[in-house]
Amino acid sequence: MATTQQTFPDPRPVDLPTGFNAWLLDCSPVSGCKVCQANWRQLRAAEDDGDTGKAARHATEIRDHASGVH
After folding, report:
1. What is the CA 14 to chain-centroid distance, rounded?
2. pTM over 0.85
3. Which terminal Cβ of the chain has fewer Cβ within 10 Å, N or C?
4. Residue environment code for 21-57, b if the CB has 16+ CB neighbours within 10 A, otherwise e
5. At what angle do helices 34-49 and 52-63 cross, to 10 degrees?
């Protein structure tokens, strides 16, 4: 019996659950923090461009404020 082997990356887009991006990008910039404000602007720009991966990295930076990363 012949099987086909999956090649990566799969050319088909991944369908994420509804609301996943909202959860992934859920964050709030800390008032008065210039790093958070800059990341917020970049997050919104990436979101407008449809680059969820880049937007998620900026959201992570904003959430990391509480742990003292910046």
Report:
1. 15
2. no
3. N
4. eeeebebebeeeeeebeebbebbeebbeeeebeebbe
5. 160
Upper half-sphere CA count for residue 70 (Cβ side, 13 Å) = 17
Give per-residue pLDDT as tens, 21-61: 889 999 999 999 999 999 999 999 999 998 999 999 999 99
Structure tokens belonging to residue 39: 């990341």
Residues 6+ apart with CB under 8 A from 39: 29, 58, 59, 61, 62
* DSSP-derived secondary structure for 10-69: -SSPP-PPTTHHHHHT---PPTT-HHHHHHHHHHHHHHHHT-HHHHHHHHHHHHGGGGT-
Locus of tokens 């910039």: 29
